[in-house]
Amino acid sequence: IEQMKSIAATSAILFGATLIPETEALLSFGSCPDLPLADNFDKAAYAGRYYEQKRDIGNMFSMFIKCTTKEFALNDDGDLDLHFRAHFDPMFRYMDVGGTMYQCDEGSADTWTCMATMADKPDRIPFKIFYADYENEYEIMYYCSDAAGMMKYEQFSINTKEEVWSPETEAIAKEYVKNNLPQYYAKWDDWTVLQTTKQGAEHCEYDW
Question: What is the DSSP letter of 90?
Fold first, then answer.
């Protein structure tokens, strides 16, 4: 149980992947939408360095953080090594966690994308990628969990391979959100729901 809590907290803090359900930002009435995960996942195209650009502000684990990054690299076994990192302002330091994504050829749009280990723990846990745009080099993480039968918790983040996303990339991502996750499109500029993550040399010291 403690291991699961640790992985949940780490993935929420450095959020780039849905490993297990966590308490998240957007609480609303209704049931979760029936949305598929990324299909035909391409490890080689997905690999690279990502910078978080936008996320749920209500995630208790990721308040007061900046410079959130993720790195995915193909290893000699053909699996994806991962590294999540962020600066925690209340602690005045960066924190990070590593792991590996396995079985990416066995996942599906209805189950999980890969199975992942985190923080040197051997157990493999479902790793879900909602949407990856390989051409425009960004990804969207979305997770929804039914709560109390009448409500739902949702979590959301956008990560790009651009250190600070361009207006063009933001516009493309925003259009996808409009068509597939309209509840976030409606709150795109509402700072009480979505937060822009600080990135760039002015705010961050990156360690790849």
Answer: G
